[in-house]
């Protein structure tokens, strides 16, 4: 039983005439009659009483007609639903991002995406890169904004560099600056009380690694928070912290940049390598990389993908 056979059957039932039904369906009358016969053979019974100048439904035809109409309506609904998704009138994107990106880049990005595709549902998961990689691996996320390098253990991912962002030192405006000069070096952090992110947080590992490469262990005044908590603790005067420029610019804290070459982090957009992201997710990914998508967020603070040294 095929959809076009049911459509021809319904047309004959509506018009009570094979020729008029063929005209309505834009098909030759012999072809329509042949398909109706094929449907009757498959069902094992006649669907119409055929008499010269008169066509009427048999009992079997009467029983089939409401079912045929329902099937045709469901098929039409399915067609429209798929077309709406294909045209991004509907759909869903599950995006993961680190907390600092969730307060920096992501709101602007999603506002632009929502303005273009208001029917697409947006689901955001906030977490460290390791958690986001796990989410991609088990199919809980379509895309994730992660910090390179990616965790060594995890699913096969495809990633593309998005931007390189400067890291800076923030401190409470009410207290003394961390250095007398306008810029700071990693060795200048030795002995300064530091507010440190929780274990597993990308910025924690980056900061600790930089300090250890400079030959010292940082003095941790408070540790265990995420971005909002760290910024609040710094604002309360408990210490300094190394944070991305995006987050620092919105914090209201004193910002002290590093001397060249400074500290940076690389942000990439990742998805599973063995699964193509849904259409809506691919469009969001395209938006991330198109010119101007990040203007006002990372511009002037790091290098765009494709321009990193």
Can you describe this structure?
The structure is a single chain. The protein contains 11 helices and 11 strands. The protein is an alpha/beta fold and 309 residues long. α8 (202-213) links the parallel β7 and β8 (219-225). α1 crosses α4. Residues 295-309 have low confidence and may be disordered.
Distance between the termini: 62 Å
The percentage helix is 40-55%
SSE run = HHHEEHEHHEHEEEHEHEHEEH
Number of strands: 11
- Helix- and strand-based class? alpha/beta
Could you report the average pLDDT, rounded to the nearest whole number? Answer: 87
Radius of gyration: 31 Å
**Coarse shape:** rod-shaped
Low-pLDDT residue spans: 295-309
Q: Could you give a short account of the major beta sheet?
A: 7 strands, mixed
Strand content: 15-25%
Helix count equals: 11
